[in-house]
Amino acid sequence: MDVTIRPATAEDEDAVVALWRACGLTVSYNDPAADFRFARGRGASDVLVGADAAGRVVASVMVGHDGHRGWLYYVAADPESRGRGLGRRMIAAAEDWLRARGVAKVHLLVRETNTRVVGFYEQLGFEVAPRVMMSKWLTGAP
Ligand SMILES: CC(C)(COP(=O)(O)OP(=O)(O)OC[C@H]1O[C@@H](n2cnc3c(N)ncnc32)[C@H](O)[C@@H]1OP(=O)(O)O)[C@@H](O)C(=O)NCCC(=O)NCCS
User: Fold this and answer.
1) How far, in Å, CA of 18 to CA of 32, rounded?
2) What sign for the dihedral angle of Cα 5, 78, 46, 37?
3) Less Cβ crowding at N or C end of the chain, within 10 Å?
4) Could you tell me which residue ranges the N-acetyltransferase domain spans (predicted)?
5) The CATH number fitting domain 4-123, selected from 1.20.1270.50, 3.30.230.10, 3.30.540.10, 3.40.630.30
6) Phi, psi (5° rounding) for residue 133?
7) Could you tell me if 72 and 63 are in contact, meaning their C-beta atoms sit under 8 angstroms apart?
């Protein structure tokens, strides 16, 4: 599929949030528009989008690093454009983004309700890493 992958602009916000909603990536405790604004265009994070020939946003990945490892979030391909290599290209672009910043390893989290996507990542060279992930809200539990 003919897509141009580029950093998202502020004007992409509505389209990107709509894509995330269409892909089932939004949850009640995260405001996706706030997530987009917080990550986009920063030194250590960005949102990359894939735009089709008409300029429509059809894929995304949020990429960043924490000073040590890289992280991916909001990996999304438009439901009507799946199975055509979009997801693979977005992951490759995010990996390039991280390599360019000297990051040696990339991590991502898969929700327990979304384990069907594990095969996609394995296809791209990721492996399941047995760890106990711990977390804590710093702003009060939602
Ligand atoms: C995950 C997602 C981004 C994949 O996008 P896509 O454009 O359909 O993926 P691609 O076409 O690039 O697939 C890349 C490879 O993975 C394979 N693949 C895709 N989905 C797969 C799955 N669920 N299980 C196993 N393999 C899968 C493809 O067959 C392809 O293999 P090939 O290159 O050998 O043919 C898309 O399904 C999506 O947006 N899902 C909903 C959002 C989501 O769950 N995101 C991840 C959150 S952790």
Assistant:
1) 9
2) positive
3) C
4) 3-142
5) 3.40.630.30
6) -90, 130
7) yes
The response to whether residue 107 sits with its C-beta less than 6 Å from ligand 1 reads no
Please give the structure tokens belonging to residue 6: 């580029």
The CA–CA distances, whole Å, from 136 to 45, 103, 139, 142 equal: 21, 25, 9, 11
The pLDDT value given to residue 59 = 98
Please report the atom of ligand 1 found closest to the CA of residue 79: 39
Domain ranges for the chain, please list them: 4-123
Q: Cα of 117 to ligand 1 centre, how many Å?
A: 7
Which pLDDT value is given to residue 140? 87
Intervals of the chain under pLDDT 70: none
Predicted local confidence at residue 79, as pLDDT: 97
